[in-house]
Design goal:
- The chain is built from 3 helices and 4 strands; from the N terminus they run ββαββαα.
- It is an alpha+beta fold.
- It has one domain.
- The strands form 2 sheets. The chain has a two-stranded antiparallel sheet.
- β3 and β4 form a beta hairpin.
- The two termini are 28 Å apart.
Length: 96
């Protein structure tokens, strides 16, 4: 299943205030339908505690964070010595 492309009607605000509500014997927040649709959230979320705050993400989203990406690159000892040559080939200026 592919993630739906957001359109103007689905565009979620960058900041939403959510009220903590009683849900049975627990407490939780309700996510607006526009947020659920935009991020293809259907059944479960992953909550990550980070230094800058809490991050909610779709359980199916397996992308690495920038921090995890850097760690993976360091672990793999990727060689980026030819990056300048690659970016100077001019292909970014050609129309595809």
């Amino acid at each position: 299943m592919s993630r739906p492309k957001p359109n103007a009607a689905q565009k979620a605000p960058s900041e939403i205030e959510l009220k903590v509500v009683q849900i049975g014997n627990s407490r939780g927040v309700r996510l607006p339908k526009t947020v659920l649709d935009r991020y293809a959230i259907t059944d479960a979320l992953v909550l990550e505690a980070r230094e800058e705050g809490l991050l909610l993400r779709n359980k199916k989203d397996k992308r690495l964070s920038w921090e995890d990406t850097y760690k993976e690159m360091a672990r793999e000892r990727e060689d980026w010595s030819d990056l300048d040559t690659t970016t100077a080939d001019g292909l970014d200026k050609e129309s595809w």
